[in-house]
Design goal:
The chain contains 18 helices and no strands. By secondary structure, the protein is mainly alpha-helical. It has two domains: 178 residues, MFS general substrate transporter like domains (Growth Hormone, Chain: A); 186 residues, Growth Hormone, Chain: A (Up-down Bundle), CATH 1.20.1250.20. Helix 7 crosses helix 15 and helix 11 packs antiparallel against helix 14.
C-alpha cells in the first residue's frame, strides 16, 4: 500500500511539489522559523522577568502573567485562525499574523506598565497563533502519512534550536541593554519572517479548494473533526504528551535548583539535555518513519514515554538516587515528544485536505490548553517536593498511551490511504 499521497488538483503549485520531490530545505527552515516564534517569544522573555518586575515596579506574580496570557492566547488564537486559513488561504492568514506579531512586539517594547505589557502580550500571542496553525496546514497540503511525519520531524529539529539558544542570548543581551531589547529583537525576527513568507512561500490552498466560513457553525466544525475516532486518538495522545512537557517546564526550575540544589549556572545544561534528546529522536523519526511506519513508531514511543513517566514517579516518591535517579526518566520522557508530536500531527491531519486548517487549530489549541492546565496543577499542588510534577508527568504519559490504544485503529495507523 502506498505510504504517501500528494494533494490532487494543485495545478498552481511549483512543479517540484506536484512531482512529489522533497520539500526544499529553505521552505522547511522557513516553516520551522515561523513555528519557533512562539517558543522564542517565551524563552527570550524568561530571563528578563526580574528586570521587567523592577522596571515596571510590579511583583513577580503580575509579571509572570505575561507568560500565562501568552500561552493561553496562542491556544485560543489557533481556534480562530484554523477556519480562516481554510476560507482565505494559508498565505494571507500567515502574513496577517506576522504583521500583528511585529506591531505588538513593538508595543511590548514601549509598554509603561505591567498591565499594558500583559495586554500587548495577549495581542502578540494572537499573531503567533497564525503561524502555528498555518505551518501544519501547509505541510498537510504538501504531504500525507509517513512523509508528512518526516517533514514534521525535520521542522521540529530546526524549531528546537530556539530553547537552546534563546535563554543564553537573552541573558547576554540583558547584561548590556534594557529588557525592552528582547521585544525589539522579536519585532526584527518577525520582519525577517514576513519578507521570507512573502517571497518564498507559495499559496498551497487554491481558491477553488477553499471552504466557506460561518461563525455560527464553527463549534459544529470542531466537533465534526473530533467525531472521527482515529482523529480523537491522535489528538488526545499528542495533547497529553504536551501536558506532561508543560508540567516539566513549570516544575523543573524548583525541582532542580531548590530541591536538588543544582547551581543556577548549571540548570541550563540540565534543561538543554532534554532539548537535545528531543532533537535526537526527531532526527531518528525523520530517518526511519517511511520504512518503519507511523503506527509502529507511535506504539513504541508511547510505551517508552509511559515507562519513563512511571520511573519519574517512582524515583520522586522514594527519593532513591536523588537527582540522578529522577533525571534519566525526565530526559527520556521529554525526548519522546520528538517521536510522538510529529507522528500525531501526521495521523490527525491525514484525513483532512481543504479543512486541514480547522483540524490543525484544534490540535494546537488542545495542546496549549492541556499544557496550561497541567502547569497550573503542578503549581496548585506544590508541596516542596518533586512529587506534584512527577505525578502530572506520569498521569500524562499513561493517558497518552491509553488514548492511542483505545481510540486509534491499529490498521489505520499503519497505512495512509488517500
Amino acid at each position: 500500500m502506498p505510504t504517501t499521497c500528494k494533494y490532487d488538483g494543485f495545478d498552481s503549485m511549483p512543479e517540484t511539489i506536484r512531482k512529489g520531490k522533497p520539500t526544499p530545505f529553505l521552505r522547511i527552515f522557513l516553516l520551522a522559523a515561523v513555528t519557533a516564534s512562539a517558543g522564542l517569544s517565551i524563552d527570550l522573555c524568561l530571563p528578563a522577568l526580574p528586570f521587567i518586575s523592577d522596571s515596571l515596579t510590579s511583583d513577580m506574580g503580575q509579571v509572570q502573567q505575561t507568560i500565562s496570557v501568552f500561552i493561553l492566547g496562542v491556544g485560543f488564537g489557533q481556534l480562530i485562525y484554523g477556519p480562516l486559513a481554510d476560507h482565505f488561504g494559508r498565505k494571507p492568514l500567515l502574513i496577517t499574523g506576522l504583521v500583528v506579531f511585529i506591531i505588538t512586539s513593538i508595543l511590548c517594547a514601549l509598554a509603561q506598565s505591567v498591565e499594558q505589557l500583559i495586554a500587548f502580550r495577549l495581542l502578540q500571542s494572537l499573531g503567533v497563533a497564525a503561524g502555528a496553525v498555518v505551518m501544519r496546514a501547509v505541510v498537510r497540503d504538501f504531504y500525507q502519512g509517513e512523509e508528512a511525519a518526516k517533514v514534521f520531524s525535520q521542522i521540529m529539529l530546526v524549531v528546537l534550536i530556539a530553547p537552546l539558544v534563546a535563554p543564553l542570548m537573552s541573558a547576554q543581551l540583558l547584561l548590556w541593554f534594557s529588557w525592552r531589547i528582547i521585544f525589539v529583537i522579536l519585532a526584527l525576527f518577525g520582519l525577517a519572517l514576513l519578507v521570507g513568507v512573502a517571497f518564498k512561500l507559495p499559496e498551497t490552498l487554491p481558491a477553488r479548494e477553499r471552504t466557506k466560513i460561518s461563525i455560527r457553525n464553527l463549534p459544529r466544525q470542531y466537533v465534526a473533526v473530533l467525531r472521527d475516532r482515529n482523529t480523537l486518538g491522535y489528538f488526545l495522545c499528542g495533547s497529553f504528551t504536551f501536558a506532561g512537557m508543560f508540567a516539566f517546564v513549570a516544575g523543573s526550575p524548583f525541582v532542580y535548583i531548590q530541591y536538588y540544589h543544582v547551581p543556577v549556572e548549571y540548570f541550563g545544561f540540565l534543561y538543554a539535555s532534554n532539548v537535545l534528546m528531543i532533537s535526537l529522536l526527531s532526527w531518528v523519526n525523520s530517518q526511519v518513519i517511511e520504512e518503519v511506519g507511523l503506527g509502529r513508531m507511535l506504539n513504541d514511543a508511547t510505551w517508552l514515554s509511559m515507562l519513563a513517566g512511571i520511573a519519574v514517579m517512582f524515583f520522586a516518591v522514594t527519593g532513591m538516587g536523588g537527582l540522578w535517579g529522577i533525571f534519566p526518566g525526565l530526559v527520556v520522557f521529554i525526548g519522546c515528544l520528538g517521536l510522538i508530536a510529529a507522528n500525531c500531527n501526521a495521523g490527525m491531519l491525514d484525513p483532512f485536505g481543504k479543512s486541514a486548517g480547522t483540524a490543525s487549530a484544534i490540535m494546537g489549541a488542545g495542546r496549549f490548553m492541556m499544557g496550561g492546565v497541567a502547569s497550573m496543577i503542578v503549581g496548585f499542588f506544590h508541596d516542596g517536593t518533586p512529587v506534584p510534577m512527577a505525578a502530572v508527568i506520569c498521569a500524562s504519559s499513561v493517558l497518552a498511551f491509553l488514548s492511542y490504544r483505545i481510540f486509534v485503529d491499529q490498521e489505520h495507523s499503519t497505512s495512509t490511504a488517500c
